[in-house]
Every structure is written in structure tokens, then in C-alpha cells.
Amino acid sequence: MADPQPQSAPTLSIQKIYVKDLSVENPGAPQSFFLQEAPQVEVGLRTRGEQIEQDIYECVLTVTVTAKIADKILFLVEVAQGGVFQIRGVPVADIQPIIGIHCPNVLFPYIRETIADAISRAGFPPVHLDPINFELLYQQQLANLAQQPAASLVPS
């Protein structure tokens, strides 16, 4: 009797981490450096992931930081931090949570540093992003997607 083939243990490995896109806008310089009022800072975030080869996935975490005083933009920084990950031995149903939770967690320290550096190079005090709970965001996204079909079935 032959031994059954051993199942491969689940593995996730980082193949590459890189800046996919970086944009810095500093439209009010140099006058904006002399404003005394504290700006309102807004942070936007999105993630996406896709399979690019067998067992190879790209995850892109994009963060946009906008600082305004009234309706004037002081600066706008947008960074798309990419990562290529090899994911093996994981059931297909479990791939999406890995791409939506674990991969952004890996990318976050890199994008946090890139954003702080870009804002500093634009001449402003760096913005240090607070930690983000990607698991909670992923669960909220799933809940929103689950509600969409139900909402479309409601008669008008």
C-alpha cells in the first residue's frame, strides 16, 4: 500500500514590494508654508488584489492624504504600494481573505513610511498614519457586498 501524497503546508511568501504609483501635489507653495491655521487632514484608503500567475498574486494598497484649509488644498499625496505574493497550499475560498487582510498588513508599514516621507519632502510636517485594522475593513466590505443584492431586489 503506497503512502498518500502529503498535502503541502500553506505558505505565503513575499516576492516583491514596490511603489506602483506616487503622486505629490503642492499647489499653494510657497504661500501655503506661511499659513498659521491648522489644516484639515483626510485619509482615504482602498485595496485590490488579483491573481497574476498560478499561486502568484498582486495586492495594491492605495492611500490618499489630503490637507485643506477651508476649500484650498495645501497638499495631496497618493501612494499605491504594491506587493507580489506567492500563496501555496491554501484552499481557493481562503485566498481572498489573505489578499484582503494579510497582504495589506504586510504593505502598510511601507506605505506609511512613503507617505510620511513624501509629505515631508513637500515641505510639510510628516503625517504618520495610525494603525489600520484590515480585518475589520474586510469584514465591513463583505457585509456591504452582501447587502447590495438584497437592496436591488426591493421594489421601488
Overview of this protein structure:
- The protein has a four-stranded antiparallel sheet.
- A hairpin with a 2-residue loop joins strand 3 and strand 4.
- The chain is elongated and about 60 Å long.
- It is an alpha+beta fold and 156 residues long.
- The protein has helices at 92-121, 134-152; strands at 11-25, 40-53, 56-69, 72-88.
- The protein has a single domain (11-127), classed as Bacterial Protein-export protein SecB.
- It contains two helices and four strands; from the N terminus they run ββββαα.
- Helix 1 packs across helix 2.
- The mean pLDDT is 90.
General form: elongated
Number of domains: 1
Q: Give, in order, the helices and strands.
A: EEEEHH
| Percent of residues in beta strands | 35-45%
Oligomer: single chain
Number of strands: 4
Strand arrangement in the largest pleated sheet: 1-4-3-2
- Radius of gyration from the CA trace? 20 Å
Helix content: 25-40%
Task: State the CATH architecture.
Answer: Roll
Mean pLDDT: 90
Low-confidence region ranges: none
Q: CATH class, anyone? A: Alpha Beta
Write the CATH fold name: Bacterial Protein-export protein SecB
End-to-end separation in angstroms reads 65 Å
Give the biggest beta sheet: 4 strands, antiparallel
Estimated structural class:
alpha+beta
| Count of helix runs | 2
CATH 4th-level superfamily = SecB-like
